[in-house]
Fold this protein.
Amino acid sequence: MARSVVKAARANSASVQQRAGVLAGQALAVRRFRAQASRADAGTTVTVDKLDRLDAAEEVISTRDVIRGSNPGWGDRRVEAEFRRGQIDQQGVDWYPSRNAFERHWQHGTRFVYFALVGAGPGLAGLAQPRYGDFTIILDPLDPEPDALAVFPGNTAALYASSGSLNVAACEAAAAAWSDRGDLLTVKHSRHVVANPAKPWGQVVCTARDFSEVVRAGELPVSKVTEVRMVADVRRRAIDALLAPDTTALTQRQAALAAGMRTLIRWQERYGLSIVVT
Amino acid sequence: MSDRRVTLVAHAQSGEAAFVRDLDGVLWLITNSESRRASEAEVHEAVSRADFQEAQRAFLSFQELDAELERIAGSWLSARGGVRDFSDLDVDEARAVFRLADEASPVGGVSRSHIVAVRLLRECVAAREDAELYGVLLDALAPEPARFTSATDDALVVRAVERVNAPVAA
């Protein structure tokens, strides 16, 4: 019987709050970090083509639903086979058993959409550098009310199911409620914060190699995206391309970037999202 | 001849971001904003979660690889109907596009506001049909009144006036 990730997270609430409280009581830098991290956002970095797909679907959807939407008429088995194909990395390592083990453990698990916890501050998504796309979309995972929502201190498939079978105890013990995300981040990063008290908190919670994962299931219209972040240089290039006197003179990649900027302007005007330069 | 190759490992379907292995086997992420070293884990994450496509194709040079990324971007654009002009913008979007012109650099000495006004008037029915925006765009096309802005210019004017008023030699 699949478990509720919300209930698992709620069961850990007192424990993670208590641990974070103890750590915050030991160092001013950690206390400050805890307060900042409690405002961490859920975000994901996207490329122009992903923006386009979100725009077409008008919804932030899971990878399986992306496949389903791109291939109308495919049955569940074919969709699952395609999903699995995407889980095999370039070394031939098949991550599907790990991802599948994690998702099958939870109610709504196969509908999970994954985000990272990101902070404010310099750089895209709190990073000095982008992750692997030029745009980071930020949303409120509580709006609309999700069917499932929890936060984990890392890549869930790798942390709890790297062998293909789920470490149930570790996985369930690590789940945290959205409202406890600051405490989860405090427990995870307190040693680093003590050693690097001046480092901006956004650069602590999400780096190119490490992040904390938000899992969410449920309807999520694109209109609920509250913010899109990009670095100043990308914004300048995107605007220059969009407003070019002669679009036939653009390179194909400039034209693609212009298309992405157009999508963002549409979202800005229709949904009121903010385009933020970081 | 060297058999060393640069490899396109994986790429965004729109071609603007790619993982590339250089001649020394070092993995890079190349995006619109920069290039940086990347990890195998990031490649996997990008493929499994961000819809990057695996490629594993070798090229003799970065120029060839760059051309391939252009081809990929072109295919993506074609699949979505090509480069769109401003014809399907609604009036709010047209206003937003025009506001952006202030941020864009001039082209060939022509202000971007002028360029965008021309494009919107030519391409966007909604902009032409909205009286207020139409007026704003026409204003943007009006040439600025000629003016002299420096002491040098003023001196030139004085000399020019003197020459015009000077008596014609017999």
In short: Chain A has 13 helices and seven strands. Chain A has one domain: 5-277. Confidence is low (pLDDT under 50) at residues 122-126 of chain A. The first strand of chain A starts at residue 41 and ends at 46.
